[in-house]
Specification:
CATH architecture of the largest domain: Beta Barrel
Radius of gyration: 23 Å
CATH topology of the largest domain: Elongation Factor Tu (Ef-tu), domain 3
Strand content: 25-35%
Shape: globular
Strand order of the largest sheet: 4-3-6-1-2-5
Bound molecules: FE2/S2 (inorganic) cluster
Helix content: 10-25%
Distance between the termini: 37 Å
Number of strands: 18
CATH superfamily of the largest domain: Translation factors
Order of helices and strands: HHHEEEEEHEEHEHEEHEHEEEHEEEE
Structural class: alpha/beta
Number of helices: 9
């Protein structure tokens, strides 16, 4: 969005989005009427209207979608994601997708892989067209580069876990970052490797960028094969790549990992073994399982709503919504903190970490389950 357009929108918002006009437009507010005239005029900052301006096939089952959001969109930091809201057969669905292009791009791009059991991703693949409109949250998440980027960085990705890394890589390289960057990227084979040609072109153009494509099905050209193990790490940090690594005392660079649980678990275990867990940043795009260990017990009381339900062991967010409450939520995976709420009493389990905690505290409803009676300030 250009500065002129942003300025025009701010001026326009100052004129129409006033308490007086909103009172006259009650109960919906002026934004709702503007949205009916033209959805792109929406003033909603939490669900920003965006038009699809291009769709590019990356592989047989992955597409990149270029978006032109309205003026409520401000910016994103490479590595962040957006919550995408999409209506399918009259029902609203939402999913998180990382932004996959450089922060210098005019339009954000998301890359969506159609998972065989992914209802929303398959719908996006088969139905979304250029010109369609979708809604987005603002950019969310703290899987981002530090303010002062260190002289060596290692990215480890598998499958669609490449998407936040691509945003970081493109931004750094476009900004002429001179430090050593290495990417270890795991795919089934070269055909299923998202951004393969773009990554190869970047590696050719930038001598400080080393690229290791790793395929689980063997191909003639590959240097590494199979799944992540310590030998891959050693290869990636070898001094020829400019990263500091020795087989004796291994020094690991700041590392980002994103992909399936199994990859993140393996890399985390390796870094722990080497005493470098502090160097690892990871992002898991997976909603916690609502499996209850043992019998669900107790009740959940919503203090402000003066309502209570029997605890059925699912996330507190699911149970609050089913009780007719409308708590704020975004990613539903414990990343964005939108659903943070004060618990005034009770014992809960964080379903991502397994950690159990008691008493008054702020909790994320989407990744928390009650272990007995719990009171929430909802
Ligand atoms: S909805 Fe994002 S942390 Fe709960």
């Amino acid at each position: 969005m250009s500065l002129a357009t942003t300025t025009t929108r701010s001026a326009w918002r100052r004129i129409v989005d006033t308490p007086l006009i909103n009172a006259l437009a009650a109960p919906h507010g002026i934004g709702r009427y503007l949205e009916v005239i033209n959805p792109m005029w929406s003033l909603d900052k939490s669900r920003i209207t965006a038009r699809v301006t291009a769709i590019t096939a990356e592989t047989d089952d992955a597409i990149s979608i270029e978006l032109s959001p309205n003026g409520e969109w401000t910016h994103f930091v490479p590595g962040q994601f957006v919550q995408v809201y999409i209506e399918i057969d009259g029902r609203q669905h939402s999913r998180s997708y990382s932004i996959s292009n450089s922060a210098y791009s005019r339009k954000p791009r998301i890359t969506v892989k159609a998972h065989h059991d992914g209802f929303v991703s398959k719908h996006i693949h088969s139905h979304l067209k250029v010109g369609d409109r979708i809604s987005l949250s603002p950019a969310l998440g703290d899987f981002i580069l530090p303010e002062h980027v260190p002289s060596a960085l290692l990215f480890i990705a598998a499958g669609s876990g490449i998407t936040p890394m691509m945003a970081m890589l493109e931004t750094l390289l476009e900004h002429q970052h001179s430090g050593a960057i290495t990417l270890l990227y795991y795919s089934r084979n070269s055909a299923s490797c998202i951004f393969r040609q773009r990554l190869e072109a970047l590696a050719q153009k930038h001598s400080n960028f080393s690229l290791f494509m790793v395929y689980s099905t063997s191909e003639a050209t590959q240097v590494l094969s199979d799944h992540f193990d310590q030998s891959h790490l050693l290869k990636a940090i070898s001094s020829e790549n400019g990263l500091s690594g020795h087989t004796g005392a291994i020094t690991l660079p700041l590392t980002y990992v994103c992909g399936p649980e199994s990859l993140i678990d393996k890399v985390s275990a390796e870094y722990e073994l080497l005493g470098h867990s502090d160097k690892l940043r990871s992002e898991r795009f997976k909603a916690p399982s609502s499996q209850v260990r043992g019998e669900a017990q107790g009740s959940i009381s919503f203090r402000q709503s003066q309502h209570a339900v029997d605890n059925d062991g699912r996330t507190l967010l699911d149970q609050a919504e089913d009780a007719g409450l409308n708590p704020q939520s975004g990613c539903r995976m414990g990343i964005c903190h939108t659903c943070t709420c004060l618990k005034t009493s009770g014992t809960v389990r964080n379903m991502s970490t397994g950690e159990v905690s008691h008493g008054e505290e702020h909790i994320r409803l989407c990744v928390t389950q009650a272990l007995g009676d719990v009171i929430l300030s909802l």
